[in-house]
């Protein structure tokens, strides 16, 4: 794991891009601040920094129905034995001893006390029903030869009986803390009789989509760009394991962004389209207005270079997504998913390696994120991968994380396009 040194690479942030290293600038009349332009951090380091700065939510008790997708905050310990009693694993006959036997009754699924079987006796039984005391095995109905009240068939001691405590005993730890609660975990919790789980709740992620030029219905036209980021975010947020907070559209206005960031209650606030150095790109100035601490100021990757992550004084995180839609997706999958992963109480997964049989040209200094399809031969680029294009990502399985280098990469790591996908192990 890349070490992230607390404080290193952080600092108060001003409207970058207009002055050089270590310069001073007047942002607003009478407001002079020292500023240092920082280098973009390496892609892997940026991801680790986003993970490191985020904080897991406080554990809460949740009804099972509300716990799917949360993370266990404490180990899951069985309060009872499972099975609670000896149960039949088959429909057929519970028998005592070797055959033949005399059939003396029938045990229904819900029978609380199935009674006692004496040597040489059998009783009809259904799968899951409690076996009578004294039963030594169960003969499956398809193996049973019945004549009147006489039964014959193969019997082997213990056969087709699920013994008390076979799955777990009281006090057994079934799962450690930190496990994702999925449907199987919910079923297991119910099996051992729990109604609630102690979990780290899902973080809430809100979004502010900025841009005077944006329209939200119909096509782009001269002077108008159809918002392609707003429609992506709710699905990305839920797939990343977070809850959707409000999504608002803002004009390119510094004061409006300050106000919106002050008011938006969420663990993480995404701000799109304000990340670069143009006259309408207010994010960094706004972060300064709000006394935010800059955590990541640009990432050495293509696309997604101007992405930024900051922390407001009250602990909320703000992620600046570049306006180019593919770059915004890359930024969410890089810094956003890393921060959300930590907030959820999970560890940041290592990314699988894969061959790139056709080779991909490396960027000399930046990590490239290239939309690819997974094939039996390895990762195959899908094309249409410009920073403003979503045509490539829309058909891709993953982004190939291509390390900087002088020539062609023949291997890369895989960042799933669907942040809810478990990382592949190849
Ligand atoms: N002088 C510089 N210019 C730019 C730099 C830079 O470093 N110096 N970086 C470039 C890169 S890389 C990117 S990415 C963009 C990031 O721009 P912003 O985050 O400030 O966003 P805008 O300038 O508002 O928009 C850029 C581009 O994307 C379109 N856009 C914005 N929001 C949306 C949306 N919701 N849906 C669809 N398209 C959107 C916008 O209309 C612009 O065409 O800056 C480069 N420039
Ligand atoms: O890197 Mo920008 O983020 O090219 O689109």
TrEMBL record:
Record carries keyword Glycosyltransferase: no
Annotated EC: 2.10.1.1
Annotated pathway: Cofactor biosynthesis; molybdopterin biosynthesis
Alphabetic keyword roster: Magnesium, Metal-binding, Molybdenum, Molybdenum cofactor biosynthesis, Transferase
Start and end residues of each MoaB/Mog domain: 206-342
Top-level lineage group: Bacteria
Annotated Gene3D superfamilies: MoaB/Mog-like domain, MoeA, C-terminal, domain IV, Molybdopterin biosynthesis moea protein, domain 2, Molybdopterin biosynthesis moea protein, domain 3
Cofactor dependency: Mg(2+)
Substrates-to-products reaction catalysed: adenylyl-molybdopterin + molybdate = Mo-molybdopterin + AMP + H(+)
Family, as annotated: Belongs to the MoeA family.
Entry function: Catalyzes the insertion of molybdate into adenylated molybdopterin with the concomitant release of AMP.
Protein name stated in the entry: Molybdopterin molybdenumtransferase
């Amino acid at each position: 794991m890349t070490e992230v040194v607390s404080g290193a690479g952080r600092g108060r942030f001003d409207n970058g891009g207009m002055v050089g290293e270590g310069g001073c600038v007047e942002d607003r009349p009478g407001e002079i601040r020292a500023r240092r332009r920082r280098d973009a951090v390496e892609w892997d380091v940026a991801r680790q920094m986003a993970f490191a700065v985020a904080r897991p939510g406080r554990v809460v008790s949740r009804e099972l129905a509300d716990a799917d997708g949360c993370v266990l905050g404490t180990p899951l310990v069985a309060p009872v034995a499972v099975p609670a009693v000896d149960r039949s694993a088959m429909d057929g006959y519970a028998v005592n001893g070797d055959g033949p036997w005399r059939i003396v009754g029938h045990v229904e699924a819900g029978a609380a006390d199935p009674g006692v079987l004496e040597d040489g006796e059998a009783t009809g039984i259904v799968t899951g029903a409690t076996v009578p005391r004294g039963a030594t095995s169960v003969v499956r109905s398809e193996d049973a030869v019945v004549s009147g009240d006489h039964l014959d068939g193969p019997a082997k001691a213990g056969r087709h009986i699920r013994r008390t405590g076979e799955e777990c005993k009281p006090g057994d730890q079934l799962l450690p803390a930190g496990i994702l609660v999925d449907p199987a975990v919910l079923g297991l919790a119910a099996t051992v009789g729990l109604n609630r789980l102690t979990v780290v709740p899902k973080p809430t992620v809100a979004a502010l989509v900025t841009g005077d030029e944006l329209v939200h219905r119909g096509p782009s036209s001269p002077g108008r760009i159809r918002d392609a980021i707003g429609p992506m975010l709710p699905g990305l947020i839920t797939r990343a394991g977070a809850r959707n907070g409000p999504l608002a559209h803002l004009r390119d206005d510094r004061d409006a962004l300050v106000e919106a960031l002050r008011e938006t209650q969420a663990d993480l606030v995404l701000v799109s389209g304000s990340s670069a150095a143009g006259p309408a790109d207010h994010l960094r100035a706004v972060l300064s207005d709000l006394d935010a601490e800059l955590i990541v100021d640009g990432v050495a990757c293509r696309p997604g270079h101007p992405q930024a992550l900051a922390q407001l004084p009250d602990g909320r995180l703000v992620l600046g997504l570049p306006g180019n839609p593919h770059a915004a997706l890359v930024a969410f999958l890089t810094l956003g998913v890393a921060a959300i992963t930590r907030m959820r109480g999970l560890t940041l997964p290592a990314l699988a390696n894969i061959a790139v049989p056709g080779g991909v040209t490396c960027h000399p200094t930046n990590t490239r994120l290239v939309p690819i399809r997974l094939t039996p031969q390895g990762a195959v680029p899908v094309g249409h991968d410009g920073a403003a294009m979503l045509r490539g990502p829309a058909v891709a399985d993953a982004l190939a994380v291509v390390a900087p280098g002088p020539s062609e990469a023949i291997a890369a790591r895989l960042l799933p396009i669907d942040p809810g996908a478990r990382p592949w192990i190849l």
